[in-house]
């Protein structure tokens, strides 16, 4: 197919179109196959191309090495580093199969197809060598799953039987093989997938439901979804039962009741489970499962997400009535979360086509997913900080193998999955992306647009012969007025309850539809209704661009924490705020260059205007998405209060060499947590961990350090602990029963012989039969 684009300018007066009630049929609305939609030239095509290049730069043999090892075969190359050789070995391999299948379907590229075939063939060798259907990259996978099969289950939130989330890891290869068949159209992929599911059924069939639910305390991806997929492919009841057994009841039950149990939870641990709930609910007509998924989506999208469509701080759901950490943290929304929220939105939409699912999908696709790949160098984003004047970090292809690299290599090969849908011969247009759809039914539709830089889209029909059908054009939530033309004749189509303009006629070859999409300016405040807001042009989030600071790490370096933007923290109280006595903040935003979608923002506390541009267009720069909104009379006082709080925190950050926030899944995992008997809990404002035995972590320095700082919450009365560092007892700390219940900090001066090491092993031991105090934060300080 030819790849091209066309930009059309026109001047029209916009009119509002009246509402008519017609609801599309949920039962028959279906997606097109990925291979039926070709992405044409534009930002999405560019991202697809960068993603394809990234896939081909990866060494397949290095990604396959963990699978060879578990199969008892000699690897052809050594593992990659980073997360691929520190406990999560093989996790990108499963994503790689999915990504190759998607890119093969989307582009038909010969090199991608060749790589796809090679990877499947080599994985088949590993599965055959195992002899029982097992295929795994999990470290010591045979041992771990052997213990599980025997009922020996030692689960924590991020570990199982001394492994780093092996179920989560295993889910990746399940999903990869399923995608190899469903998307890559490989019969070998199907056979391997069913064999793998049969193996897993055999090793878990003798476990009780209680044992499995205990195992599901450990992050496990979307295992319930892949077993449901196996049931859909085979019709075997055992796989449906397995899908139910691997649905985490701790999350399902409160969601089904309409409750919100999410605060403090690791966000992306939950979302894949809920995708499974949605698919089970749809396939097996289970109202509780479907309701749980719908409630989760509503709560996350409406109460826990920011303007770009992302959610979470430091990977966890913060209190929904307090987004302060979203503004202060350099670890904002995680990209994997949005990857899975789009998957959930797709599943729910095709169960019940509601406009809200596509509205969210569009917002998140442009602002979070499209923006997460470097448009020139490739590389994928992990965190999207909402902290003003901060930045994002991109992966380096041979160095970084974060979770968001795994989901990232999939994101940009499946842009065509939701652009169109169909109901019999009727055609639905959801997204305004330059693309060509081949319905394989005598109709080819070509969508020509530079949206959002062009505020319209145009469709050209190629038909074998005249054909009667209805064309449904989605009316986005942000569209206030429009005009629609067919062959340059203005029409006034009906608007359905489902928010589609319905054009019903007999179409002929060469017909052209033109759809005006004027972008209105809006302000979206944070869901907690605090005085922070983001400006949008239609669905496109706007941001101010700032110059980089010395030392900004825009690309990962293969280090364990290389995905975090560790550059200088610019005080939040110094960020420009928008001041207006009437609260009419959008009046300060004026169009500047519509071909680049830039605007001038005035009325700022600094007295100087700023240029805002699409957030998705900012790369290797600092930026500001959210602006403080204030009355001029109140701003000086607010700023002084912010300064007083923040200066103390910034001073501490400046001397921090390494930090662990205890009880949070990823920070503890990043510091190689070992549990000798402990529990985690959620206090008033943070997680904590307390031990009745011992806990240990690894901290890195690489420079001279001087002190160890431990922060505890109010659970300290009648508790005691010993603090050990590299086998040296630093301090024994005990609190009386009458100790005041408030926040405590203990600062320990390190012996001179422990101040210049690269790595430290910190151990907290309970003493005298007491639990340790509840520790929330540990820092290694250089002063």
TrEMBL record:
Residues 427-519 form the Non-reducing end beta-L-arabinofuranosidase-like GH127 middle domain. Residues 36-417 form the Non-reducing end beta-L-arabinofuranosidase-like GH127 catalytic domain. Residues 552-627 form the DUF4986 domain. Pfam families: Beta-AFase-like_GH127_cat (PF07944), DUF4986 (PF16375), DUF6805 (PF20620), Glyco_hydro127M (PF20736). Transmembrane segments: none annotated. It comes from the Bacteria. One of its GO terms (biological process) is carbohydrate metabolic process. Residues 651-781 form the Glycoside hydrolase GH146 substrate-binding domain. InterPro entries: 6-hairpin_glycosidase_sf, Beta-AFase-like_GH127_cat, Beta-AFase-like_GH127_middle, DUF4986, GH146_SB_dom. This is Uncharacterized protein. It comes from Jiulongibacter sediminis. The lineage of its organism: Bacteria, Pseudomonadati, Bacteroidota, Cytophagia, Cytophagales.
């Amino acid at each position: 197919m030819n790849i091209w684009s066309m930009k059309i300018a026109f001047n029209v007066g916009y009119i509002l179109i009246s509402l008519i009630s017609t609801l599309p049929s949920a039962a028959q609305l279906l997606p097109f196959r990925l291979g039926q939609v070709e992405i044409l030239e534009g930002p999405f095509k560019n991202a697809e191309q960068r993603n394809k290049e990234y896939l081909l730069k990866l060494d397949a043999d290095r990604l396959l090495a963990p699978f060879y090892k578990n199969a008892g075969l000699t690897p052809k190359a050594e593992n990659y580093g980073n997360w691929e050789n520190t406990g999560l070995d093989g996790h990108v391999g499963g994503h790689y199969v999915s990504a190759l299948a998607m890119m093969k379907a989307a582009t038909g590229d010969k090199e991608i197809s060749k790589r796809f075939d090679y990877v499947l063939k080599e994985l088949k060798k590993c599965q055959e060598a195992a002899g029982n259907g097992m295929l795994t990259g999990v470290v010591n996978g045979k041992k771990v799953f052997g213990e599980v099969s025997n009922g020996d289950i030692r689960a924590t939130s991020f570990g199982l039987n001394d492994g780093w989330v092996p179920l989560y890891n295993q889910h990746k290869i399940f999903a990869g093989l399923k995608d190899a068949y469903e998307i890559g159209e490989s019969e070998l992929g199907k056979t391997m997938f069913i064999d793998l599911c049969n193996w897993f059924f055999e090793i878990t069939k003798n476990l009780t439901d209680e044992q499995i639910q205990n195992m599901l305390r450990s992050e496990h991806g979307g295992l319930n979804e892949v077993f449901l997929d196996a049931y859909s492919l085979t019709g075997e009841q055992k796989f449906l039962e397995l899908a139910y057994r691997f649905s985490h009841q701790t999350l399902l039950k409160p969601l089904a009741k309409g409750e919100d149990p999410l605060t403090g939870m690791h966000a992306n641990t939950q979302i894949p489970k809920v995708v499974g709930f949605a698919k089970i609910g749809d396939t097996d007509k289970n109202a509780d499962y479907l309701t749980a998924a719908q409630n989760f989506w509503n709560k996350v999208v409406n109460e826990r997400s920011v303007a770009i469509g992302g959610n979470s701080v430091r990977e966890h759901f913060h209190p929904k009535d307090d987004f302060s950490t979203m503004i202060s943290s350099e670890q904002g929304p995680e990209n994997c979360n949005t990857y899975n929220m789009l998957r959930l939105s797709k599943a729910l939409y095709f169960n019940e086509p509601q406009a809200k699912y596509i509205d969210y999908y569009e917002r998140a696709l442009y602002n979070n997913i499209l923006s997460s790949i470097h448009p020139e160098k490739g590389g994928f984003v992990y965190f999207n900080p909402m902290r003003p004047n901060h930045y994002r970090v991109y992966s380096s292809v041979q160095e970084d193998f974060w979770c968001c690299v795994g989901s990232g290599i999939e994101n940009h090969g499946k842009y065509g999955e939701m652009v169109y849908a169909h109901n019999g011969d009727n055609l639905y247009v959801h997204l305004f992306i330059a693309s060509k759809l081949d319905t394989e039914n005598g109709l080819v539709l070509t969508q020509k647009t530079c949206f959002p830089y062009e505020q319209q889209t145009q469709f050209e029909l190629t038909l074998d012969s005249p054909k009667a059908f209805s064309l449904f054009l989605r009316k986005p939530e942000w569209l206030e007025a429009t005009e629609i033309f067919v062959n340059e004749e203005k029409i006034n189509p009906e608007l359905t309850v489902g928010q589609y303009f319905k054009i019903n006629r007999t179409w002929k070859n060469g017909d052209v539809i033109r759809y005006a999409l004027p972008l209105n300016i809006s302000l979206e405040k944070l869901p907690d209704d605090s005085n922070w807001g983001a400006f949008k042009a239609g669905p496109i989030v706007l941001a101010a661009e700032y110059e980089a600071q010395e030392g900004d790490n825009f690309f990962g370096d293969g280090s364990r924490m290389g995905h975090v933007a560790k550059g200088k923290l610019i005080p939040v109280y110094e960020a420009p705020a928008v001041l207006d006595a009437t609260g009419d903040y959008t009046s300060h935003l004026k169009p500047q260059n519509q071909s680049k979608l830039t605007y001038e923002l005035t009325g700022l506390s600094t007295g100087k205007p700023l240029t805002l541009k699409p957030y998705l267009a900012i790369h290797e720069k600092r930026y500001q998405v959210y602006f403080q909104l204030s009355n001029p009379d109140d701003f000086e006082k607010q700023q002084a209060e912010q300064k007083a709080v923040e200066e103390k925190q910034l001073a501490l950050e400046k001397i921090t060499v390494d930090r662990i926030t205890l009880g949070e899944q990823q920070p503890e995992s990043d510091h190689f947590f070992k549990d000798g008997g402990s529990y985690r809990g959620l206090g008033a404002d943070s997680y904590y961990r307390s031990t009745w035995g011992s806990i240990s972590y690894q901290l890195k320095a690489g420079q001279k350090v001087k002190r160890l700082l431990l922060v505890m919450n109010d659970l300290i009365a009648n508790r005691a602990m010993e603090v050990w560092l590299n086998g040296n007892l630093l301090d024994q700390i005990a609190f009386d029963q009458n100790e005041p219940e408030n926040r405590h900090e203990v600062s320990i001066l390190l012996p001179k012989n422990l101040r210049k090491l690269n790595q430290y092993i910190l151990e907290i031991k309970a003493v005298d039969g007491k639990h340790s105090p509840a520790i929330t934060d540990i820092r290694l300080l250089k002063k």
